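A sample follows:
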Amino acid sequence: MKILLLGEYSNVHWTLAEGLRALGHEVCVVSDGDRWKDYPRDISIVRRWRTSPWALKRTLGAVLYLLRLLWVMPRLRGYDVVQLINPVFIDLKASRIMPFYRYLRRHNGKLFMGAFGIDKYWVKAGLDCTTFRYSDFNIGSQLRHNPDNDLMIRDWLHGPKGQLNDRIAADCDGIIAGLYEYYASYHPYFTDKLRFIPFPINLDNITSAVRTAHDGVVKFFVGVQRERNAYKGTDIMLRALRQVEAEYPDRCQVTVVESVPFRQYIQLLNQSHVQLDQLYSYTPSMNALQAMAQGMVVVSGGEPESYAIIGEEELRPIVNVQPDEDDVHRQLAHLVEHPDLIAQLSRQSIEYVRRHHSHTSVAQRYVQAWIPR
């Protein structure tokens, strides 16, 4: 098949492309590399000066980006399958995206939309306080208020992004959800066209090694995105970790990095035992899965629903934390007090990714979802 993957989040599409190519398919990935993360792509569509303080520079960047899109679009024809990373799959205002969607729909075969991140249905599910026990938007019946959440509510529930999401979800041939949370968000509305497929990890590019705290020192790693610190719960996790570090100064080592490109991030990550990921998730993210494949122990979301949806009944490698600083502190302190757990969880982490996230087996599931036999 000839396949177009348009847009990028956390290296999902590029890794999927590697799996599809290994199966013999022709694949083109078009994206901006997920901005500063600079993930690989075949055709680059980067919007320059997007956040410049100078209005003239921002306008020039927008014009150049639009011209780039108009030059690229004729090359995005004749594909058997097109998959969009999100309803907002190019870096334009939502009100201007629909003509590009129609062009892709008209000049290609089947078109699928990814449920891989922020969109209307995920925001809506988080706000109903019943779909999830906790999420980026709620803890029990209490809503979480912060600038990021307020912006997403305004954009996706009360603005053109939500309207675009509705139109594409209704029109496309199928919706692929990459995490339990996204599947649960869409399931009440699009049961017939919704599929869950785990995120892909290219194990051929990863050197897996079981982590062992030989000297009793547990090495923790935290990746910070300054603009999304509170939204992802990194602020709470880091406070809890700093408390553990103060209580066990000779048994705890902490590395904190902020908004570094993907290649540098992986190099720094590989020197640690434990990665702290997202606080409000039920499921490990792409970053967490990458770390687990390397043999890292991940502190993040490992709720029963996330194991159930992939059919895992034995392994429990993820240190599942509740959205509470005291619980995070207890879990981290337990790892420091029992460093022998690191090797056990590390082995399980490697096996978990091997069982459920191999990029070729995931790619085969995509092929079956796109073109059922």
About this structure: The CA atoms of residues 203 and 358 lie 6 Å apart. The first helix runs from residue 12 to 22. The mean pLDDT is 93. DSSP finds 15 helices and 14 strands in the chain.
